[in-house]
Amino acid sequence: RSVKHECIYIHAPNTGSALKYVLRQWFSYYNQRRLHQALHYKTPNEFYLASRNKNINLTNYQTIRLTKLAA
What we know:
Strand content: under 5%
Number of strands: 0
Largest sheet: none
Low-confidence stretches: none
Order of helices and strands: HHHH
Radius of gyration: 14 Å
């Protein structure tokens, strides 16, 4: 829901290349700058790196998908 409401509907890109550019910008913002309440107000990148460094068990955090964050 977030990507549609916060990106696609607002910017309404007309071409495939414009869509690709807008999505790259939005996912960069989403993973690197946007704080997430479910991740204790950290960005997904910060949370992922902290979990790797501290060996945190991520199975308790159902809201994140590490395969998408690592991409």
